[in-house]
Amino acid sequence: MIGEIIKTILLGIIEGITEWLPISSTGHLILAQEFIKLNMTEEFCEMFDVIIQLGAILAVAVVFFKKLNPFSREKTESERMDTYALWIKIIVACIPAGVIGILFDDLLDEYLYNPWVVALMLILYGIIFIVVEMKIGGRRSKYRNLEMLPLSTAFMIGLFQVLALIPGTSRSGATIIGGLLIGCSRYVAAEFTFFLAMPVMLGASLVKLLKFGFSFTAQEFIILIVGMGVSFIVSVGTIKFLMDFVKGHDFKIFGIYRIILGIIVLAYFMLS
Fold first, then answer.
1. Distance from the CA of 223 to the CA of which of 45, 111, 154, 185 falls in 20 to 30 A?
2. Is residue 28 situated within a structural domain?
3. Cα distance from N-terminal residue to C-terminal residue, the chain
4. pLDDT-based confidence at 87, cuts 50/70/90?
5. Looking at residue 135, what is its pLDDT?
6. How far is CA 201 from CA 2, 41, 117, 205, in A?
């Protein structure tokens, strides 16, 4: 049991870091699980990868609680209205990925959830990140805060989130690229990405949980709780890091990292 807990902690750390950086948590978990295998059923392991995201979601709610809470007594009436408007933008932007994800969840898992697709998407979107950053350069952003973001633009960013249903794309990567292309600052693109994650990841977790059922063994329950707890703690640090990082840096380094990781994943599975 101790060995399984250690594995769970390591996987929680990987999830907490890679879920929020635009480098694909799926790609990292696929590679990690080649070396860190939980001694559980294949069905449970598939669900575990999604359920530990609940810890990451909770991290967003905690870090941005004040900004996302429309009932705060510290906010003026105008600020509360801005918060309600933000939630409307989040919900509208989540509709495309939510609909497509529910309709095609099984097909996506069956045909696209494999190392080859993940590796290719890591490389492809790594290149796209570099190209997009070169294209926008020092361009002045059109949307420098979320209040400036129109509802129609939020929906367009949500369309980019659909691309993240392809494993290896990275949900944060797809929405950040979409935000940058549409004219968001790096800070706004990253921030809105975190907010979009909450409904989408919560929905995906609930779908997997309903498919698996709620009858856990004691060991399975402990593993889920530990994984979620570690993911939450690491996610809090990762979110704060990225929000500080984008104030003075671009995303090229993540593009380079994705390309290197994609090549490593391809090489590993070609040789194994």
1. 111
2. yes
3. 29
4. very high
5. 87
6. 29, 23, 21, 6
Q: Is the pLDDT of residue 30 over 80?
A: no
| Mean of the per-residue pLDDT values of the chain | 88
Per the structure, the complete domain to which residue 79 belongs is given by 2-217+227-271
Could you give the number of structural domains in the chain? 1
Residue 222 domain-assigned (yes or no): no
Q: Is residue 147 part of a domain?
A: yes
pLDDT digits (tens, 9 = 90+) for 182-195: 999 999 999 999 99
Domain-located, residue 130: yes
Compute and round to an integer the Cα radius of gyration of the chain: 18
pTM: 0.88
Q: Which residues neighbour 74 within 8 Å (Cβ) at sequence distance 6 or greater?
A: 66
Q: What are the tokens at 209?
A: 């949980």
